[in-house]
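ok so for the tutorial part 2 we go from a plain amino acid sequence to predicted structure tokens. step 1 is just haveing the sequence, like this:
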Amino acid sequence: MWSLMNILSKVPSVRNFTIYSSIEEGPVGVIPQDFSALLKNLCSLTCLVPFLAFLAPGRPLVSLHVLNGNSPPLDLGTILGSRGPNITIKDLEVPSRITPTTASDFPRLHNLTLRFHLDYEHSIIPGPDAATNLMTLIVDTCNKWAVSPSVRWLHIRIGARFLTENLVLQHATLSGSLLQKFPALQQFQLGHARWERFAADEAWQVLIPACYRTNIIARFKAGNPCVVDHDGFLQRLSAWHDLL
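step 2 — the prediction. this is what the tokens look like for a chain of 244 residues:
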């Protein structure tokens, strides 16, 4: 860590910083307090939870990505050590267990990404209600955030095909619970499906990137119960795909 300090002390203009490490590789306690005097121009930070207290407070962060997935529940506002207008973050990616105290902690937040790790963070029992139960988990996590009128883009990163290809459940949740929490939302992504609208009176339109369409269409045609169509979108996509 001392060698890292020596390097950073010679480049005070650093604006983007990423550090990959772990407690096992180097205890956070060995980081000298002088570290707080560095990176005063830092705008973009990617790091593990233990480094947040050293790297985030007092810096003009616009983008923050927290790497830990198995961290304990944490209050991000407390970690950052500031409130309201003092937090300039516009792009935030965190594990689902990290939440803010209030929306005023992030008054400028535009893009929010929440990562769910089912292996060691959440337990979902497979079965006919698995998709509904998992979506309930996502909604409950989002409800820990106060109403956030500044958020335009919400991305849920989760490895669960039985939910990520259920377009009916996604649309119902997006139009209901999530829109109440993020009223100005314009883009929502869960799995490969990306929903868009650019005005409050517009209907949500779903898009699936071309690189994923073939497999999803194949599962849809095979009657896979995890693939649930919304408003005939997959049916039309399948018909168009057959013409190619």
